[in-house]
Design brief:
The complex is a heterodimer of chains A (241) and B (248). With 241 residues, chain A is of the alpha+beta class. Chain A has helices spanning 24-33, 51-57, 101-105, 134-141; strands at 64-65, 86-91, 97-100, 110-117, 122-133, 149-154, 159-163, 173-178, 181-182, 192-194, 207-213. Chain A has 2 domains: 1-57, no CATH class; 82-234, Oxidoreductase, molybdopterin-binding domain (Sulfite Oxidase, Chain A, domain 2, Alpha-Beta Complex). Classes of the chains: A alpha+beta (241), B alpha/beta (248). At the A-B interface, loops of A face strand 3, strand 4, strand 6, helix 5 and strand 11 of B.
């Protein structure tokens, strides 16, 4: 095995000396150890400032930009009628809450324009959503001081775990509109958790509630070999990355 | 926990499956094996350090030690698949890591080895299902199994000859094709996109105790999975994986 070239560095090289993350030490390693794929050139990469440069700097390492909105899910798309839909917050809170659809969508909502990265490698910029901040939901229930982790659960049995430090202070919201229209079922409608700072599997489709815990419990993909935290800027795709 | 290591694989064989689909055999040092349905990540790096990664399903069965096959459709405006098709040749080396994924997996173990198996594929979505069928054949399982496979034209049916010969071994596998764009003279099979009625007809002999794996473009996966739910198959027995035009 060509040990000089493989496994010598921990994470993907990223897009061309991604100075956002790669310090000089790592740059040096990349320069000296990377394996070059014979004949691979890749797409043209415009240099300098401007739109293309901005898009590149917003694309995490190992990702490519897409204008589609790809769909990924592990099982069939659940369909819960809105009159039977509800959203709960429970666990380590002073006052557990359940909202009906009408109550939930009457909460103070706002528009969010965020960049999304999926572990399957696509990144889509400037995705426009409408929904309620997780902060607003937490204010309604008042977290206990012991609440440190959240696990979101969805119709169909899907779960994903997040430390609350990853979802507080405007970092996460529950959306019911995408691009000005009701969120389509295959994209997670009627409502989806959105956590733009993490790979998209953390943005639980068909979300129905959040449970607050004092310990970290792996969710669905986190228990199947995917990274527990999933920070796309650190390329935390799989366990151990 | 250690990260899944990048390994330097050597391309040992390249062969055409259809005019736009090609298979690559990769010999991978210290490869720990995989489970049918799992995928790998490839990383390509240019001279200037620019690199891209893509995920590809493994097409081969785990019984082949140290070697995996990938089957890749050429997407004309893609960044990676045209490179794999037009440039990569036997003897080339390529960075790979995996295996990845643990849910879209079928193995001839426990109850899975005996339960009826219903596979639904659209186009190159057949790749991870082929790993399951090859493994099933090698393991000697003879559980009732049906593959419903949607292709546009007969000449675009991936693994056509191998699927014919697997079905001919009479070990419980049946392959049902639908050709959605053109059909050869005298074609007796389905000639339309997969719909509820087709799912019901092809599933019927297997019954509601089946386990189902569906892989293809989003529209096909949605239709097939929704039909199975309506027919009464429990949601946790329907596993899906999507192949879209962005999976290049």
């Amino acid at each position: 095995m060509d040990g000089l070239r493989v496994g010598g560095y921990r994470r993907g090289v990223g897009h061309r000396l991604d100075t956002r993350l790669v310090g000089w030490r790592r740059t040096l390693r990349v320069m000296t150890e990377r394996f070059v794929t014979r004949g691979f050139v890749g797409r043209p990469r415009p240099d300098g400032e401007g739109t293309a440069g901005d898009a590149r700097s917003r694309t995490p390492p190992g990702q490519y930009l897409t204008t589609d909105f790809p769909v990924l899910s592990a099982g069939p798309t659940p369909r819960t009628p809105l009159d039977r839909w509800s959203f709960f917050i429970e666990g380590l809170v002073r006052e557990p809450m359940t909202w009906t659809w009408d109550e939930f969508t009457a909460l103070p909502a706002r528009d969010w324009t965020v960049d999304i990265s999926c572990v399957t490698k696509w990144t889509k910029l400037d995705m426009r959503w409408r929904g309620v901040s997780v902060d607003t939901l937490f204010e309604a229930v008042e977290l206990l001081p012991t609440a440190a982790f959240a696990i979101a659960s969805s119709d169909g049995g899907y779960t994903t775990n997040l430390p609350i430090s990853d979802i507080l202070n405007g970092q996460a919201f529950v959306a019911w509109e995408y691009d000005g229209k009701p969120l389509a079922p295959e994209h997670g409608g009627p409502a989806r958790l959105v956590v733009p700072g993490r790979y998209f599997w953390k943005s639980a489709k068909w979300v129905r509630g959040i449970r607050l815990l004092d310990r970290d419990v792996p969710g669905f993909w986190e228990g199947l070999g995917y990274h527990n935290r999933g920070d796309q800027w650190l390329e935390e795709r799989y366990s151990g990355d | 926990m250690n990260p899944i290591a990048w390994r330097l694989a050597t391309v040992t064989a390249v062969r055409d499956e259809t005019p736009t689909v090609r298979s690559f055999s990769l010999s991978i040092p210290e490869w720990g094996g995989h489970r049918p349905g799992q995928h790998v990540d490839l990383r390509l790096t240019a001279e200037d350090g620019y690199s891209v990664e893509r995920s590809y399903s493994i097409a081969s069965e785990p019984e082949r030690a140290g070697v995996i096959d990938l089957t890749v459709e050429r997407i004309d405006d893609g960044e990676v698949s045209p490179f794999l098709h037009d440039v990569v040749a036997a003897g080339d080396r390529i960075e790979v890591r995996g295996p990845i994924g643990g849910y879209f997996v079928w193995e001839a173990l426990g109850s899975m080895a005996t339960e009826p198996l219903f596979l639904v594929a659209g186009g190159s979505g057949v790749v991870p299902l082929m790993a399951m069928l090859r493994h099933r054949a090698r393991s000697g399982a003879h559980n009732p199994t049906r593959l419903l496979f949607s292709s546009r034209h007969l000449e675009e049916v991936i693994y056509r000859d191998e699927l014919d010969s697997l079905a001919a071994t009479n070990d419980g596998l049946e392959v049902v094709h639908t050709l959605t764009r053109s059909q050869p003279a005298g074609w007796m099979g389905y000639d339309r996109r997969i719909d509820d009625r087709m799912i019901a007809e092809v599933l019927a002999p297997l019954g509601m105790g089946s386990r189902s794996f569906i892989c293809g473009p989003t529209a096909l996966v949605e239709v097939a999975a929704n039909a199975l739910v309506r027919l009464g198959l429990p949601g946790d027995r329907i596993r899906t994986e999507r192949f879209g035009p962005t999976g290049t």
